[in-house]
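User: Teach me something about this protein's shape.
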Amino acid sequence: MRKNYRKMASLGILFFVSVNLYGQTGDSIKVKTVDEVKITVGSRNKNRVATDTPVPVDVINIGSQSVLSPQTDLNQILNYAAPSFTSNSTTVADGTDHVDPAQLRGLGPDQVLVLLNGKRRHTSSLVNINGSPGRGSVGTDLNAIPAFAIERLEVLRDGASAQYGSDAIAGVINVIMKKNINNLTAAITGGGFNSKGANDHRGGWDGEKLQFDLNYGAKLGGNGFVNVTASFLNRAATGRAGTATGDIFNAYNAIEQRARENGVDLSSLFGNINTTSNTQQIINYIHQYAPYVNYFDAAMQAGIQNANTIQDLQAILKADVTDQELAYRGLERNDFNMRVGQSKLGSGQLFVNSEFDISPSVKGYAFGGLSYRKGNAAGFYRRPNQSRTSTSLYPNGFLPEIASDVIDLSLAAGFKGKMGKVSYDISNTFGQNTFDYTIKNTANASMLSSDKKEFRAGGLGFLQNTVNADFDTRFDWLKGFNLAFGGEVRLERYTIEEGEEASWALYDINGNIQTPGTAPSLKPTDFMGATRPGGAQVFPGFRPENALKKGRSSVAAYIDTELDVTDRWLMSAALRYENYSDFGSTFNYKVATRYKLTDNINIRAAHSTGFRAPSLQQIYFNATATQFVGGTAYEVGTFSNDSDVAKILGIPQLKQEESKSFSAGFTAKIPQANLTFTVDGYYIKIKNRVVLTDQFSRPVGTFPAGSPEYNLQTGFDKANANAATFFANAIDTQTKGIEGVISHRFKPSEKVALNSDLAVTISKTNRVGNIHGSDILINAGQINRYYSETSRVYLEEAVPRFKASLNNSLEFNNFSILLRNVYFGKVTDPNTMDVNGDGIVEGAIINGQAVATEHPVWGARVITDLSVGYKFTNSLRLTIGANNIFDIYPDKNYGPKTVKTPSLDASGNLIYTNTSQIDLSYQDQFVYSRNVSQFGMNGRFLFVRLNLSL
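Assistant: First, the predicted structure itself:
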């Protein structure tokens, strides 16, 4: 692996992340080089251009995306345009199906700061607690901003906490909104997935998408403007499951169906099958309707008629009759598939950007927008032979759905001007994100004789308000000295709203919420005697105990300087002090330099410290349930960092992550050949990274007083808990990488232009040092649950370490052609499996425990996009094209295998004697991994787009 990494690093010295796409101006697609763009991130010198900075800044002109690119949402635009950026949709991952985690330089979604017009953007209210890259993090929902409202993106790929504050460890993404006036532009995009894998691998079309974008700008006063964007999207779901395998119907389901067809609801006759007063009536009905099942053979029919107790009938009726019953009901196994793939989505967005004169020397501005998205994703299919299925309500089982209402609101306003030689900018920025859950097509199995299929499960909310005062001035010292300074006050609030009682409650057969005193005879069961679970299936709602409203405040002051020592040598330095009301203060610095060796070759380097404040979501998120063990109520689930459980088990208060970063690189131009080269290498070390732990559990058994296991048992009992997950500052990491690009511009005539960019990024993240854990948990042998092998893979190997793109854009007369190839490197699945076929899942001894370490590795792929546009008039352009034109899919998942798993013998040696069955496809539902994917699993997307400009 190390040799391969060095080879890739050597190759990567040739390339760097693409610094431009193509900006639309009027009716033409025009190349806009980075030299022309004065950047607003990475430097507070208003005259600085991207190629002149001491740190790498990519400028991505979004205008062309509304013309040629198959991608229309901001996450996917960046995923294909910037190799250092990674974002992929997840499937069957609860709320994460609706908000895509995004990462820069392989770091977490919450380690990149997002700005809108230079002002801090609020994060999502959703914390990613499910199995996907970025687990345990809280990112900014980039898709809440319509791409059609954006003029360009500025991506600072360097630590910048000393300049911008928390989160800017990997870098900063500054979204610049459109300012154009006297121009109405519109885009209508329609398309869908035409793929061999569509419709659960039956082919055809699915995931149809229709999007309408509209932008208009008008003059406001003498020198101002107002620019308005509206965007509407309707997107259908895709299906990429296989064909459901395994047992679906048992013999009791068959008899129950025949009774139902004759007006008898068998399951309504009992709440608890072991204590019902209708035992004989149930037996009689089974005897009566069993003969209606014509595929029961004579022996089975005789056995049923001779069985005169519920226990005898249970033994007979648990028999699998899936194939026969499917035929009787006119169903297929595909009817029991999960909805694996892209979730349903409908959205409407309205954004405004404006600037206006307050006085001859003072300008005002205001911008922001409203985004509403309604999503629908599905969970695991509840089959009729399972205790969690209410067959009275759903005779064929059901596919529960998580419906989300995501509302994102932002508004920034301020004024700016000049007092003497000092420029100032005073602003207030408000942002709010809410995420409400409604669980549909579901049931609370403990609610007997209820036809309730929809539950309000509660919601999440995050609010942020930031006040900024920024000043800058320039002195004629040496070749020019730029001084910027300012302050910031930020208020944050996080809320969890409880769901309705039925969404989370576990009821007894009388409709009362179960307590530790609830007798077993009062607990609902299915016919086979299995206890029925409570809460809305797929997503039990937030309980009253989970509901909260928490807040904090922070204040900051900074100074940011740039000195042109000579015409060739630039130096910059920044300092920032920040104080948070909940965890204290932090002080950070940054130094950087750039030197022009020649007019065409620059070298540059930077060093900085940084930090990320633990989010309120990570500190306070909690989702718990109650388990009854031996008549005692125990809490299980994810507990907040400030909970009594966390304190008793020694989980310390969350504190800030701290980073040190180093970067160095060069830029070069060969004007005669129209070639540019840029290369940057970086190293980032982060202390006290916040992770979401695996589940710690109360030790089972009897242990001597004073032993570590006994102490942990005592701790759990004192906390009244049985199993617990936490957010904790558990590890330190290091990230290193190289990014590079070669760009070429070729224009043999006024009517022909070819622009090519070859970009590569290589990165590697790994844990360094020991796991930071509490003594009570470590001593009891649960250190590996702080940072498990699964968590390691998600952090280190779940996103491509190697990613490259080759973009070619050709203009020929009225034709425009985009050809793009993106190479997505291999990724590792966090699940374990016998990959090499030797019958065992290989393991290792980690912290004195046997840990399975053999993981599937999903191979690299090249995804090709092709679009062709034709300009009919200066106002009308038509584009047809494809994303993933060759219909490429990831490697297929592993189906069921009987394997031996690792364990330790009495001497502490690794052995393979335990046998188990592993099925990563979950009965052929996840044909491709649901946990990691470089580019998704939907296959070829074809689209047609009409662009209007008036």
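Now, about its shape. Residues 1-36 have pLDDT under 50 and may be disordered. The first strand starts at residue 22 and ends at 25. If you'd like, I can walk through any region in more detail.
User: That's plenty for now, thanks!
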